[in-house]
Amino acid sequence: MIVMPVYQDVDALDVTGPFEMFRWAKIPVVLVTETPGLITCNGSVTLVVTTSFNQAPAGEVLWVPGGHPKALNRLMKDENYLGFLRHHAAKPQVKWICSVCEGALLLAAAGLLDGYKVTTHWAFEPCFSQYPRVTLAGGHPRFHLDRNRLSGGGISSGLDEALQLILLLKGEAVAQSVQQTTQYYPKPPVASEIPAVTSCPLDDA
User: Fold this and answer.
1) Which residues, listed in sequence order, are joined to residue 2 by a DSSP beta bridge?
2) Which fold has domain 2-186?
3) What are phi and psi for residue 23, nearest 5 degrees?
4) What is the C-alpha to C-alpha distance for residues 118 and 144, in angstroms, rounded to an integer?
5) The pTM is what?
6) What percent of the chain has pLDDT over 90?
7) What is the pLDDT of residues 163-191, one digit of tens each?
């Protein structure tokens, strides 16, 4: 089981893209939030979340999505959210701790990435200067695995990361089946380079 702690202004694809991949792998996903109800994603898609942090099952995987910079600034100081991450990550059933996009900043704020190498959305790499014990993987990889920490790059990278997690949990045959079912063979119609950045988007949020 995968537990995803969501919040207002979470990035929709960080949640729904991996959710779709996991669904085809027959891996249950439970969305949890501090106060159950409607969660409005960054961009206005709405999720109905019925499970609170206190009701969260002890899944094998903790999956932390990214979101709007204003939401990140709020949550990086929110001991209810960070406390849930720490408490859940410490459960013996939890074998994998994952982030996609800027969700890595939330794990870092909770102290759960100290001593690990991770990837994140390229624009938010400068934000990790405040976390000197976290190392960034060079070259903007789509995902990066360091022991039991699996992190994904920007938004759509969660699809690649989800396949990697499926591979870890259920093996190559299941991961290939999910790839085939979702027809995930990306060939984008444009090509560009990731730009260099020096400032943290959180500073302007």
Assistant:
1) 29, 61
2) Rossmann fold (3.40.50)
3) -60, -45
4) 6
5) 0.97
6) 99
7) 999 999 999 999 999 999 999 999 999 99
Length of the chain (residues): 205
What token pair was written down for 72? Answer: 């990140």
Q: How many CB atoms lie within 10 A of CB 146?
A: 15
- Give me the pLDDT at residue 205, please: 80
Selecting among 98, 101, 127, 200, the annotated active-site residue is 101
**Catalytic residue at 101?**
yes
Q: What is the residue-wise DSSP string for the chain? A: -EEEE--TTBBHHHHHHHHHHHHHTT--EEEEESS-EEEE-BTS-EEEE-EEGGG----SEEEE--B-HHHHHHHTT-HHHHHHHHHHHTSTT--EEEEETTHHHHHHHTT-STT-EE---GGGGGGGGG-TTSEEPTT--SEEEETTEEEE-STTHHHHHHHHHHHHHH-HHHHHHHHHHHT-----S----PPP--S-GGGG-
